[in-house]
Amino acid sequence: MSRRRGRARFRVGRPYRRSARDGEVLPARRSADARRGDERHPGPVRREARRATRPRQGAGRGRTPDSAHPGDPPARRPSRRLAVRGARRGHRATPALPRRRRRRRGRVPAGTRSPRQARAGVRPAVRRGRPARTCARGARRGRHPDDRGAARRLRSARARDRRDRHRAHAHRIGRGRDPLRGARHRHLRAGDRRDAPARTPGRRAEAPPEPRRTGSAVSSTPFRDLNVLTAAGDGTYQASIDPIWTIGPKVHGGSMMSLCAAAARRRLLDENSDAELSRVQPLAVGANYLSAPDPGEVTLSTTVRKQGKQVSFVDVELKQGDRVAVHASVTLGVPDAGEPQYSGDHALSQLPVEPPADAVVLTADHPMAKIVHVSQGCDMRVDGTSAHFLTGNQGEPEVRMWVRPRAGDEDDPDTAALFAIMTGDISAPVTMNRGMFGWAPTVQLTTYLRRQPAPGWLRVMASSTVLGGAWFEEDHTVLDSTGAIVVQSRQLAMIPR
């Protein structure tokens, strides 16, 4: 037997032929063709004959199998491995010796030592989830059980440091040191990056343009200037949105809704010269927000779906460039003017008609005014008892506030009606009361104008019932100075990321 590359090879010889004994004459060796018909030499063709020529399993030394020929030497005990190649050809192969098995060493359980290690003074190193490793004393690997106390003390010290930092931050917020600082930066980062202006490598993004000013002060009629439309023919109008009507870097959703309502009413008045249409106002506006435009020039395309004596329907698309930002469906009619047949009590009626002295005034330097730029185009006061996020606390998703247009905007009834529609989305996201800051994009908004608002402060309450994992609804209710409900709205928005 010879070995090559770790595998056994067998030498296959010719059929066994014994030597002649004393005085015995062996028959002459015949060729394969001559032996092919002999039953004693069936050859490799017939399987039964080949099996008959092999020694039986268990035949001991000195015993002759039934199929052995007379005069043949006794069969030897078969080995565990035979040369299959030679057996198939009808030859006898040299039996192979059994391979010597290598003894495998078992792994030492964690925390134990073998006798050899004990004599050598080796200490096992315990490591969780892995087999034990051994090394010489003084050169330990991994973590030893004696080090657990030090590691535990280190973790406790780090936890105390984090707790102290959090308490110090909460103390600063409680003292009124810009609680919306982090929210403002998160809001700017959470904008629609596809709509964000292009950035030059190595330079910061450009700031939004400054508000439109007349001389050294902001215009006295900022909301009327927002709804100024220029006819471009075929039911298309051009408008310009001032940067003060934005939330963060993007245009305020309520401002775009009022602009769509103004375009629908303008289209209806341009096609008819009836004096009765002057009393028509947008009663319901349902808008789907497809993208978030930047302040600047926009185009509004209108289509009259139906014009009736009491109700008319106009579709409006607000575009910036070639991209549609808002698709709105406007229902126009004459709002109610008399006393309602029934009016239930509302929690907002408990709010004072005018803001008290302790109301939070959103001036230009207020942290919230740096996000809600709409406060620069009107007067806004927030009820501090409902806006818990201003003091760094959390509470119910409900915010109450007072809003009033500028004197020049309040004197025009049409502008006052559009301003009331805009207040259906004027509050900051109620998710901020639950500690979720950032941009909460509005996906769908429906606003109802119930009646013409009376001059004075408008009381606004924004609330939500369910804040889901990805979506939440927000309801706005607006009361005028007489206590009548002038606007109701509901929107579907996304949870801030």
Helix content: 10-25%
Distance between the termini: 75 Å
- Average of pLDDT: 75
Give the CATH class of the domain at 220-336 and 344-494: Mainly Beta
| CATH-assigned fold name of the domain at 220-336 and 344-494 | Porin
> Strands of the biggest beta sheet: in what spatial order?
7-8-12-13-14-11-18-21-20-19-17-16-15
Structural class label: alpha+beta
CATH superfamily of the domain at 220-336 and 344-494: Acyl-CoA thioesterase, double hotdog domain
Structure description:
- By secondary structure, this protein is an alpha+beta fold.
- Among the domains are: 38-55 and 82-91, no CATH class; 220-336 and 344-494, Acyl-CoA thioesterase, double hotdog domain (Porin, Beta Barrel), CATH 2.40.160.210.
- Helix content is 20%, strand content 23%.
- It contains ten helices and 21 strands.
- The protein has helices spanning 32-35, 47-53, 84-88, 115-120, 148-174, 181-189, 222-226, 253-271, 407-411, 413-422; strands at 2-4, 7-9, 123-125, 133-135, 213-214, 217-218, 230-233, 236-240, 246-247, 250-251, 281-289, 297-307, 312-320, 323-333, 360-361, 379-382, 398-404, 442-449, 458-463, 471-479, 485-494.
- The strands form five sheets. A 13-stranded antiparallel β-sheet has the order 7-8-12-13-14-11-18-21-20-19-17-16-15, covered by helices on one side. It has a two-stranded antiparallel sheet with strand order 1-2.
- The radius of gyration is 47 Å and the shape is extended.
- Residues 6-11, 58-68, 79-89, 126-142 and 173-216 have low confidence and may be disordered.
Q: How are the secondary structure elements laid out?
A:
Layout: E1 2-4, E2 7-9, H1 32-35, H2 47-53, H3 84-88, H4 115-120, E3 123-125, E4 133-135, H5 148-174, H6 181-189, E5 213-214, E6 217-218, H7 222-226, E7 230-233, E8 236-240, E9 246-247, E10 250-251, H8 253-271, E11 281-289, E12 297-307, E13 312-320, E14 323-333, E15 360-361, E16 379-382, E17 398-404, H9 407-411, H10 413-422, E18 442-449, E19 458-463, E20 471-479, E21 485-494
Antiparallel strand pairs: 1-2, 3-4, 5-6, 7-8, 8-12, 9-10, 11-14, 11-18, 12-13, 13-14, 15-16, 16-17, 17-19, 18-21, 19-20, 20-21
